[in-house]
Amino acid sequence: MQRLSALLAILCVLPLSACDGRFASRTIVVGGNPQRGAAAIRNVGCGICHAIPGIEGANGKVGPPLDNIGQRMFIAGIMPNTPDNMVVWLMTPQSIVPGNAMPNLGLNAHEARDIAAYLYTLR
Predict the structure, then answer these.
(1) pLDDT category, 27, cuts 50, 70, 90?
(2) Residues of 72-109 as b/e, b for ≥16 C-beta within 10 angstroms?
(3) pLDDT above 90 covers what percent of the chain?
(4) Under 8 Å CB-to-CB from 59, ≥6 apart: which residues?
(5) HEC states along the chain?
(6) Is 17 exposed, middle or buried, given 0-12, 13-18 or 19+ CB atoms closer than 10 A?
(7) How do residues 49-61 score in pLDDT, each as one tens digit?
(8) Phi, psi values for residue 44, rounded to 5°
């Protein structure tokens, strides 16, 4: 009976581990979708300013490279790196650090959540 229980537990976990590794993340952005986030990053043009792994042509040098952003302690050097803070930063960076180089891009909450979901895959 113990073997059957152990086998069932493994079978329940296997589908979770079968996800595309590019989008595996320990940080969950509720309501965010990393695939849509990658598309939004391309559409908005984030790669003009940032180097972003997994985004073709995203090799900008104006802003910081975003590799490992999912592991960093802070956003913009001042905000704890949490999904909610990342969404706020993406939507209104000028309200957080007035005069910084990151422009307000006119993102809505859904777009910002999707982009944050993608960024948290970068570990």
Answers:
(1) confident
(2) eeebeeebebebebbbbbbbebeebeeeeebeebebee
(3) 75
(4) 47, 51
(5) CHHHHHHHHHHHHHHHHCCCHHHCCCCCCCCCCHHHHHHHHHHHCHHHCCECCCCCCCECCCCCCCCCHHHCCEECCCEECCHHHHHHHHHCHHHHCCCCCCCCCCCCHHHHHHHHHHHCCCC
(6) exposed
(7) 999 999 999 999 9
(8) -75, -25
Residue with tokens 């695939």: 35
pLDDT in tens, 66-109: 999 999 999 999 999 999 999 999 999 999 999 999 999 999 99
Residue 121 to residue 23: CA distance in whole angstroms: 5
Neighbours of 49 (CB within 10 A): 17
β-sheet bridge partners, residue 59: 51
Judged by average pLDDT, the poorest of 1-10, 21-30, 35-44 is 1-10
Q: What is the amino acid identity at position 20?
A: D
Query: Which tokens is 95 given?
Result: 């309200």
